[in-house]
Design brief:
Among the domains are: 109 residues; 29 residues. 82% of the residues lie in helices and 0% in strands. The longest helix is centred in the middle third of the chain and has 61 residues. The protein is rod-shaped, with a radius of gyration of 61 Å. This is Vacuolar protein-sorting-associated protein 46. Pfam families: Snf7. InterPro entries: Snf7_fam.
């Protein structure tokens, strides 16, 4: 349905409602004259003017019939307006559903479930790779930026803080500092008395040196 058709339907609905309102207004106008005519007829009858009262009575009945007809026309016009409104609403709904159907068909043609699954899987894998790389990077940064603090630096800092606080820490530092491992002395060589054969060989070497 085109916009022109929608505008035409709206115009027809407006005209039907306007006609119903006009008919209802004419019916109310005719009914409004009823008490006046009744009063005039009664006055004419009191005066004995029967002929004039007769004419007024005919006018009153005509007005009443007109009011009744206008009410009926107003009812018919309102019913017609309601039917036109319902028809226009149905047409607009049908038009909207047709547009939605075309949009859904177009979206369905452009949808590729396999491609969507592949994309989601790639996205998941990329997130996992990034998390792994980020963890490795953080571990590398942590290990490369770790600082080894020497015992001398610790003693110096504690000494300054102790001086500021007026505390003697020399003995406490000595007790708190891990003792350096004492170098092990080489075990003394255990000498044993030479045997007779070794003594004989030693004497032979001495004689050879003296010769």
């Amino acid at each position: 349905m085109s916009n022109r058709q929608l505008a035409r339907d709206m115009q027809v609905e407006f005209q039907a409602r306007f006609q119903a309102k006009q008919a209802r207004r004419e019916a109310a106008k005719a009914s409004k004259q009823d008490p006046q005519l009744r009063h005039q007829i009664q006055e004419l009858l009191k005066k004995g003017e029967t002929q004039k009262a007769y004419q007024k009575a005919k006018v009153l009945l005509s007005k009443q019939a007109l009011a009744q007809q206008m009410d009926q026309m107003a009812d018919m016009a309102e019913l017609s307006a309601a039917q036109i409104q319902a028809n226009n609403s149905m047409n607009r709904m049908t038009h909207m559903m047709a547009q939605s159907s075309r949009t859904m068909n177009l979206a369905q043609r452009n949808t590729n479930p396999e491609k969507t699954l592949v994309t989601l899987e790639q996205y998941k894998q990329q997130n996992e790779d990034y998390a792994m790389s980020n963890g490795i990077y953080q571990d590398a940064v942590t290990s490369s930026t770790s600082v080894q603090v020497g015992e001398d630096a610790v003693h110096e800092l504690l000494g300054k803080l102790a001086d500021d606080a007026g505390i003697e820490l020399s003995q406490q530092l000595n007790s708190a500092t891990p003792a350096a491992a004492e170098p092990q002395q080489p075990a003394a060589a255990v000498t044993a008395d030479p045997t007779a054969e070794e003594e004989d060989k030693l004497q032979q070497r001495l004689r050879a040196l003296r010769a």
